[in-house]
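TL;DR need structure tokens for one chain.
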Amino acid sequence: MPNRLAQETSPYLLQHSENPVDWFPWGEEALSKARAEDKPILLSIGYSACHWCHVMERESFEDEETASLMNEGFVNIKVDREERPDLDSVYMRAVQASMGQGGWPLTAFLTPDGRFFYGGTYFPPEPRHGMPSFRQLLAAMLDAYRNRRKEIEKASNQLLDLLRGASSPEGRPQGSRSAPGGGGAGEEEAPEAHIAKIGPKTLDHAARFLAGQFDPVHGGFGPAPKFPQPVTLEFLLRFYDRTGKEEALGMVLATLRSMARGGMRDHLGGGFHRYSVDDRWLAPHFEKMLYDNGLLARVYLHAFQITGDPEFEDIVTSTLDYILEDLRDPEGGFYSARDADSEGEEGLFYLWRPEEIEAVLGKEEGALFGRAYDVSIPGNFQGQNILHLPRELDSLAKTEEVPQEELDSRLGQDRASLREARSHREHPFRDEKVLVGWNSFVLRALAEAGSTLGRADYLDAARKNATFLLHSLRHEGRLLRSWKEGESRIPAFLEDYAGLGNALLTLYEGCLEPRWLEEAKELADQLLELFWEEEEGLFYDSPRDGEKLVVRPREVMDNATPSGNSLAIELLLRASAIFGIDEYRQVALRALIREAAAVERFPSAFGRLLSTISLSLAPPLEVVLLGRTGSREMEALRRVAHRRYLPSRIVVGGDPGKLPPLPLLEGREVRSGRATAYVCREFTCTAPLLGPEALGRELERSVRRTLEVDGEPQEG
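>> reply
TL;DR here they are.
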């Protein structure tokens, strides 16, 4: 008989709706029951693509005896961490503080008022490797709650004080005051002067730190398991742009090539898996997450803008094409994930045996494909084969005595044939909920790639996605977090507002349609109203009128996605440059300075924040484009404006009769009846530029001038 989760929309919660556990979704019904019956809460947090979440469900939550113990002693609450990042943040931090590490599934035991007193991650059905069985844990927690209540009260209160301190900047209790940047000279200096002083040193220190962590053989940072870290790679590209230091660019390009040639990338269907369990990017954890692919598509696009390497362009288009084909809802939203498992086995959908390939391609062609993609009878992964490219294809062409173009063509046809054959296998489960924050990463990548590569279909998909998010995930002027099959229930968080605001600015820059600019400004204003605390000088992740948890969540470090804090600062810096609103910039600088000490200590945890520091130091390169929308001349100018990697660039303009009221557009006009461009820095502009060649030359000069000014070695 289904439990209460059958009424939910989250695919993860629905997966547990047939468990014999009397699950509740998080809400007042469950919390009231716990208080009324004086029962501890067993909180289980996971997500649909989580392999060990499925394992624990099979071993424990589907077991009648275990479920009986849970139902008798606890109020059991199941949460989808992707829908409720606020709850996940609070209780993951509690587990990490008490146990030293965290992960999913997250298992937490709470008092009826929501205070944490014990927890961990996965627990086995039988004692193993020094871990108690889950049933033993249940008995111990229930005994402690009934017979040692004072100990639990003391421990939960101590941990609550710790969490409240951790949720405030630099460990201070919420509501305390301090000087920007943690005291010292920051007390006397304006934000502009303070960030100008500390920013370059912070960026240089971070780049040196990352160089010390870099794997020169396989790319990436640190030992296995290796994660893609797109925000860290983006920072290094910005650092290269600011300083001209080739080492930073080299680390990024080596990492991007290794990831794309390894098993991390799906060489048949496109897109990337979650992370690599080994140090050479061969064996991935096979789930595919929307956010990884949206964020990585932008990094590869920027690498293409810098190098012109067609390999990077191909990776961008194959990644975005995968998203559009496999993860797009007909209404325009993008689904969250593909699971790692199919037929009860992780990665089975993606693995191959030589005889399977030969059956599709034939003996001779199958052998060639196997030599290219490391397919063998022993296999490279548990007796089967993960497709990857262990060597350059030009060297294979020489070995095979096949012209490079012919080899590329044959392998392309082979991949298409194998992809079609693979489509008849049982597909991994697809999580079809739409999350605003994650969609914003793809929206931004589509808009930027569309304008850079001249892909009108990408811009159309971006427009449709933006329209869908603003219509279907907004109620009474406020964003909602999640949508599935027409239902949206959860108020949006900081990362949703900030991520979508940034994406809409990029969409405006790509197509110069004023409506996206207007929507982005509204989101920036709402962000300040709902999440910014003026007295404390910081952003929180949940709105001030949102659900009151034991701690108001505030996560400033990046995780798999950029922190909401860093996205908010980026949005305000970009919006200030476009709209000429200094308040946006001053708030952004205050928030940046507030985190400066933590960024200095843990640079690898603040990739996007490091990029915003870089953005705050560089005067924006302002490109104004005026002309009839859709005309050939205007499209040529727009393509040139976006062709280069110019991270401080903003693009404004449009049809002269429909221009938005922006300071940059005042006094600008079309010359000689032709589409016209201006290139400006801090509102000082060139003479009018006619034609894409003239604009391209001026942008090239701007790049050289930037390196001459910013490329000098910094102190520290």
